[in-house]
Design goal:
By secondary structure, the protein is an alpha+beta fold. The protein contains 14 helices and 17 strands. It has three domains: 288 residues, no CATH class; 108 residues, no CATH class; 62 residues, Orthogonal Bundle (Arc Repressor Mutant, subunit A), CATH 1.10.10.410. Helix 4 packs across helix 5, helix 11 packs across helix 13 and helix 12 runs antiparallel to helix 13. The chain binds zinc ion.
Length: 476
């Protein structure tokens, strides 16, 4: 018995495809604020005799994701019935894909602490989302009763299954985050929907090269949850092994409120699902359209281009490209002002202020922001006053340059700076004496005084220079 453990994680990431209607019927998928069970029809309620019709857009989106993940898109793909009973699944089976998934054998490159890791994508197949259950009175194992809402039933899902190539909870988070960025770039996914991305994780620990029993952790709904759930589960399994025990092969439920995983049921095996072909849906021949499905520039490519084209650092490029909307915004700003300065202002100042306000970049007009940055570029506005104007603009929903004019924030002219400096010297003889006596700190106090007199519009570096000139003149 040694402590030579290796963590082995495979992820199943369920993504709701952002189509207007459901996977096999014309019910709207826009049900988030609707009353329960109002977006349903005989197909998504699974009533006998109803017939599914495949959503063409969902298939196109699935191909787009497959291509972006370097998968082989099958020429012919078909659906199967996955049979199991669950209250949110009124048909008693889920229409899914089995031996002919639309996408196979792909790859995702993720960066963990600056190092690239390749994660194999085993398959990315289409299926329908079940309805949703609301456990009243607490979590699944503590609630008194459960309500079911079929509004979600039949929403198109893509299940992306990785090879067991993930070696740590942090790497799992990188996989989910990288995938989310790609999905956003592909415009197939709406991150603002609750439950739009859900993760199941298969976790086992190899000890001295021998693979241990696997558990499947279900119901992880966020990237933060991925790390938390997996850290808990990895520690739990390691502790069992260290005590000489065994890990039970089972399905566990992640309780996000408590940050723990709990036993849900014995893990099903494939044969338990009695897959058989969905005879109501014909085989889909992708050869007729897959070549026309276009994959846009992806985050990694855009990152590399930003470094190349705009001369920004790796770190800044990553901040600018992790969300498509931010990258688009930056390129609009960089079209009219110095690209490197624009990068700093977008990646550091703007994102920080937006983050602080929990606001989105689409609340800012690129040309108005560019006008602010160009005042800084032309040396007409100090950084500090530009930030002030930006904050006020975000708070008040107005163009920042309007605030610069209204509050007279433009940089003080040289005359004004010299005048304010002389006044500060006259009014603060003690500080002047300290400075002349060799106390270099005293100059900071005087700079502060000048800044105050000019309402922050003087350039601190210039003030420092003028102060030293004036004071060093007095010395002689
Ligand atoms: Zn329906």
């Amino acid at each position: 018995m040694t402590d030579d453990f290796e963590v082995v994680i495979g992820l199943e990431i369920h993504v709701q495809l952002d189509t207007a209607t459901k996977m096999f019927c014309s019910c709207s998928t826009d049900y988030e604020d609707s009353e329960p069970n109002t977006h349903t029809c005989p197909v998504c309620l699974g009533l006998p005799g109803s017939l599914p019709v495949v959503n063409e857009r969902a298939v196109e989106y699935a191909v787009r994701v497959g291509k972006a993940l370097d998968c082989d898109v099958r020429d012919e793909t078909r659906f199967h019935r996955k049979n199991y009973y669950y209250p949110d699944l009124p048909k008693n089976f889920q229409i899914s894909q089995y031996d002919a998934p639309i996408n196979e054998d792909g790859e995702l490159v993720v960066s963990v602490e600056g190092e690239d890791h390749e994660i194999g994508i085993r398959r990315a197949h289409m299926e329908e989302d079940p309805g949703s259950l609301m456990h009243k009175g607490g979590s699944i194992e503590r609630s008194n009763y459960t309500l079911v809402d079929y509004n979600r039933s039949g929403t198109p899902l893509l299940e992306i299954v990785t090879e067991p190539d993930v070696r740590s909870p942090d790497e799992a988070r990188a996989v989910v985050e990288t995938l989310r960025e790609i999905l956003e770039y592909l415009d197939v996914y709406d991150a603002s929907r609750s439950g739009a991305l859900r993760v199941d994780a298969n976790v086992s620990i190899s000890q001295d090269g021998e693979e241990g029993n696997r558990t499947e952790v279900k119901n992880i709904g966020s990237t933060k949850g991925v790390v938390r759930a997996l850290r808990y589960e990895v520690t739990r399994q390691k502790n069992r092994l260290k005590r000489g025990g065994d890990v039970t092969q089972e399905t566990r439920h992640y309780d996000d409120d408590r940050g723990v995983t709990v036993t849900l049921r014995e893990k099903e095996e494939e044969k338990d699902y009695r897959y058989f072909e969905e005879a109501d849906i014909p085989v889909i021949r992708t050869t007729e359209f897959k070549d026309d499905v276009h994959v846009p520039e992806l985050p990694r490519e855009r990152r590399a281009r930003f470094e190349d084209e705009y001369g920004v650092s790796d770190e800044v490029a990553e901040k600018l490209t992790s969300r498509k909307a931010v990258a688009d915004f930056y390129e609009e700003v960089a079209a009219s002002v110095d690209a490197e300065l624009a990068a700093t202002w977008v990646a550091d100042e703007l994102l920080r202020e937006l983050n602080y306000r929990d606001a989105d970049v689409d609340e800012v007009e690129a040309d108005e922001f560019a006008a602010l940055v160009s005042l800084v570029a032309d040396d007409e506005l100090t950084d500090a006053n530009a930030v002030d104007a930006l904050r006020a603009a975000l708070d008040e929903g107005r163009p920042p340059v309007g605030i610069v004019e209204e509050r007279d924030l433009r940089k003080a002219g040289e005359d004004e700076t010299v005048e304010a400096t002389r006044a500060a010297i006259d009014e603060n003889p003690d500080a002047v004496e300290d400075y002349l006596g060799g106390d270099n700190e005293a100059i900071n106090f005087l700079v502060g005084q000048v800044m105050q007199k000019t309402g922050g519009s003087a350039d601190p570096a210039t003030v420092n220079e003028v102060l030293r000139e004036e004071l060093d003149g007095q010395e002689s």
